[in-house]
Amino acid sequence: MGLIWKSLPYLLMGALETLKITIFAVSLGTVLGLIVGLGRISGQKVIRFLAACYVDFLRGTPLLVQVFIVYFGFPQLLEQLGSPVTRIPPFVAAIIAFSLNSGAYVAEIFRAGIQSIHRGQMEAARSLGMTPTQAMRYVILPQAFRRVIPPLGNEFIALLKDTSLLSVIGIVELTRRGQIIIASTFRPFEIWFAVAFIYLILTFSISRLVTFLERRLDIK
Amino acid sequence: MMVRVRGLKKRFGRLEVLKGIDCDIAPGEVVVIIGPSGSGKSTFLRCLNLLEEPTEGTIFIDGVDLTDPSTNINQVRQKVGMVFQSFNLFPHKNVLDNITLAPIVVKKLDKAEAEARAYELLKKVGLEDKARAYPDQLSGGQQQRVAIARALAMQPKVMLFDEPTSALDPEMVGEVLGVMRDLAREGMTMVVVTHEMGFAREVGHRVMFMDEGKIVEEGPPEKIFNCPENPRTKAFLSKIL
């Protein structure tokens, strides 16, 4: 127990890093996901195709490989293209990889959310003279947003847990800090449980936040 | 003519739903379309504001050709109000915002003016006390009256009604038909698809009987209801009257 207390500040610093990456990736991933999700239902065939390729590639390949591509692969490409900057800091690479990956899942969540809105809503909006963009913005999306909050919450929880992969590119987040402590103390049992417990607190907080938002935004 | 339709055909894949419709509707005229389900009457109505795209033929609304690709359909739709069977109010907006959304967003009206007009319309449909209510707090009849007010807020020249009372409990049909009757008296051009024969008889200037994608017979309500000529019209009316 004493060991856990002693390690706690050190682990919490890691939790902060985990949270930071999660928040960045979730924000960028949501914006990206909305754009790609709208692309998936675009009237333009080319846009639909490109959006589908994006989603298929990022959902069909391991996140770890995607992290490697961004962190190790992109610098090589940059070098070959003659770019003056060829090093991507781990933190930046992590956020790029996680945002791209999350964008694919969030795109599918938005697509499903938009398609779940009854077609009569779009018809009513269009019959009043709204353009497709206006109808989407004022009628469809506000309703779809409320519906996608629970699946978005699940996606964010999954993303937070997946950041534990990032120790492989040298990011000292929560899991990495656990490894470091164990390397010097040889007490894996207590430390891994402490790490797990901190993850649990983080994910549980997100799920409470989601429930709260869901209730706040509920259409009576 | 307010509405002029020539040679209108609509196919869904191999199924031909409208097989050549010609009709003219004068300003202020109330046309009631009746017919068995699957006869194409709703599809016809939906073609009049291009919710369905015609396969063939031309449609003029107030002189504008809807089927001309250079026509700005969003502008034409502002002149054609539509009321749906399932109301289709926006559930995330209250009654007032449902009515003012399109005038503000599409017509760029300022909020105060749009709201003043919305209150007038709510008074007209008898719901001025429900301005802040949300659609799911209203009965079906009230929702449909709000939907009518919402369509009128764009100051359309033609109103289309697609079975406006079919989703209502019987005791609420009257209040909606009442609003429609007032509208007809004020001289609104109306095209109404309905099964309410009492309304057709009393308010309609002309009744069209559609079957299998065609207008089989049309004329003043007294003639269609009292001495129909076409055997299919007779058979249909004998089943429902």
Structural summary, described in words:
With 220 residues, chain A is mainly alpha-helical. Chain A is built from eight helices and no strands. In chain A, α2 packs across α4 and α6 packs antiparallel against α8. The longest helix of chain A is centred in the N-terminal third of the chain and has 39 residues. The N and C termini of chain A lie far apart (48 Å). Chain B is α/β, with parallel strands linked by helices and 241 residues long. Chain B contains nine helices and ten strands. Chain B is globular and about 55 Å long. Chains A and B meet through α5 and α6 of A and α2, β6, α3 and α5 of B.
Core attributes:
heterodimer; A: 220 residues; mainly alpha; 82% helix; 0% strand; flat; B: 241 residues; alpha/beta; six-stranded mixed β-sheet; four-stranded antiparallel β-sheet; 38% helix; globular
What amount of the residues of chain B lies in strands? Answer: 15-25%
Low-confidence stretches of chain B: none
Helix content of chain B: 25-40%
| Order of SSEs of chain A | HHHHHHHH
What structural class results from the helix and strand content of chain B?
alpha/beta
Strand content of chain A: under 5%
Number of helices of chain A: 8
Could you give the distance between the termini of chain A?
Answer: 48 Å
Number of strands of chain B: 10
Strand order of the largest sheet of chain B: 6-7-8-3-9-10
Average pLDDT value of chain B? 96
Major β-sheet profile of chain B: 6 strands, mixed
Helix content of chain A: over 70%
Q: Nearest-angstrom radius of gyration of chain B?
A: 18 Å
Work out the number of β strands of chain A: 0
Largest interface by Cβ-Cβ < 8 Å: A-B, 20 and 28 residues
Largest sheet of chain A: none
What structural class do helix, strand and pairing data of chain A support? mainly alpha
The Cα radius of gyration of chain A reads 21 Å
